[in-house]
Amino acid sequence: MESTLDRGQAAPGPRTAREPGRPALAIGGESPDHAPTPSWALVALGVVACAVMAAACWTASHVHADPPLLTAARFLHLAALVVGLGAVLAVDWFALLWLLGRRRLGDVLRTACALHTPIWLGLGGLVLSGLFLHPDLAAPLTLIKLGLVLAVMLNGLYAHWIGQRLRHLQEQPESKAAGVPRRLLLQTGIAASISQIGWWGASLIGFLNSHP
Question: Of these four, 66, 90, 127, 136, which has the most CB atoms within 10 Å of its CB?
Fold first, then answer.
């Protein structure tokens, strides 16, 4: 499921649109001095993600790993799942606490910024190691799992876009006392839900496929 904060008083919950006077931070590894990622670039990355998944499926059907390589791939697959899912759980947990009014928006943005790299490394590790696991591409469950992984990748770009909107909202002087728009809160909840469904669904199918 890729924020400028100022110093001062801020309400802890989702009504907080700005936290005054803290160092500038950005979600998804962005520097505050860099321009936000344009929408066309995010769309292009989504197309690249689809192409990567298609190439991975084609490659997996032509790769025949020997037992040692298969064992190593299984370990890498598990390690990537731990890294990626663990990072996602941390980000989504902070997002949930923010929506419930238990954390400040800045806490969510800082956590997402810090864990951006582990999430994508986990996804990359899952795709790479999956090439050597002899996936049955004709099985419905495998196809669903691949769809969930792709959904997680595209949702990550969507979450990056949401993060940019939250940061932009904080940068507006007129939003000091204003709350985060309800529509943006809904989009945040949708992104977090897709993230959890995708990661846990893919994990469950992977477990079922490993125990025929």
Answer: 127
Inter-helix orientation angle 67-99/182-209, to 10°: 150
Which pLDDT belongs to residue 185? 86
pLDDT per residue as tens digits for the range 42-89: 999 999 999 999 999 999 988 888 899 999 999 999 999 999 999 999
Q: What is the pLDDT of residue 142?
A: 92
User: Cα–Cα distance between 52 and 137 in angstroms, integer?
Assistant: 16
Are 194 and 169 within 8 A, CB to CB?
A: no
25 touches 106 (CB < 8 A): yes
**pLDDT for the residue numbered 34:** 52
Amino acid occupying residue 88: V
Neighbours of 210 (CB within 10 A): 10
List, in order, residues 6 or more apart from 72 with CB less than 8 Å away.
132
**Token pair recorded at residue 198:** 């995708």
Q: Which residues of the chain have pLDDT under 50?
A: 1-12, 15-33, 176-177
**Distance (Å, whole) CA 97 – CA 204:** 26
* Cα distance between residue 88 and residue 91, in whole Å: 5
Q: Which of 183, 83, 196 is CA-nearest to residue 75?
A: 83
Q: Is 16 left (phi over 0), alpha (psi -120 to 50) or beta?
A: beta
Alpha carbon 177 to chain centroid, angstroms: 29
Rg from Cα positions in the chain: 19
